[in-house]
Design goal:
It contains 12 helices and 8 strands. With 301 residues, it is an alpha/beta fold. It has a single domain, classed as TIM Barrel (Alpha-Beta Barrel), CATH 3.20.20.70. Strand 3, helix 3 and strand 4 form a beta-alpha-beta unit.
Length: 301
Amino acid sequence: MTEFKGIYPAIITPMTSDGGLNEAAFREVIEFNIQAGVHGFWVAGGTGESILLDDEENMRIAEIASDQSRGRINNIMHVGAATTARAARLAEHAAGTGVEAICCVPPFFYRQSDEAIVEHYRIVGAAADLPLFVYNLPQSTGVEVTPDLMQKIQDGVPQLRGLKHSALTFAYVRAFANMGLSCLIGNSMLMLPALTIGATGCVDGPPNMAPELWVEIWNAYTAGDMARAEAAQEKATRVTEMVRAYGLHATVKAVLSERLGIDCGSPRAPGRPLTDAQRSDVLRKAAELGLTRVAVAQPGD
């Protein structure tokens, strides 16, 4: 699979009651999304809390994602880290698990020159030699990858394939598309308008608890049925609004736990779980939006 198009949920990292990785629940969430028709996953990104996990946990996540998916979708594994050496080590490991691509935030905390950012991506890209996606999330990293900086990365990193564009500069979508990059919009409320100006798909957290809603946007849009696509985007937007009102990690985990009949746990500290009252409100609103219990069959069942 060489194209990176469609809906790529930024998948959660389910946790056990003692705060460890819940491998069984992770597989359930992956399978639920695959059966809903997603085209791939953005693994261990912001929604996956990768910055709060140690390297061994992130490596195990890559192994599970690849094993559970079995080549049915594209896994884009996040390998971003505070140092180039760590990011390159995670990239090399990810390539060995069989994921289809890697993604990486730019160096963060200490402000780096454009040349240092390009060199960071060059080393990380070479370590995996897989399609590489830049993770443009300036709200968290303090670094915005503009079209000018992206051109420098494109010139210096042969593995570059595209980016997740989560910056507020929506108009850059068109610029990135004109550079021949696969631009995945990072705001699930803007999936449809982004597609109309050159985005190839969407990556965000809310879709992994309600993948069918965003798959419907994609299917309607690619079929040329804009009225249906607009209706689907409106419904999906209401889901994202609910998530933003209560908090990403806790809300998505609570809804997935209810829909799949499993325990996805709480956000890792310092993240906080929903209060009992908040959880009750979230699950009530999710039910009103049609996000009810589903049955997920494991491969081979």
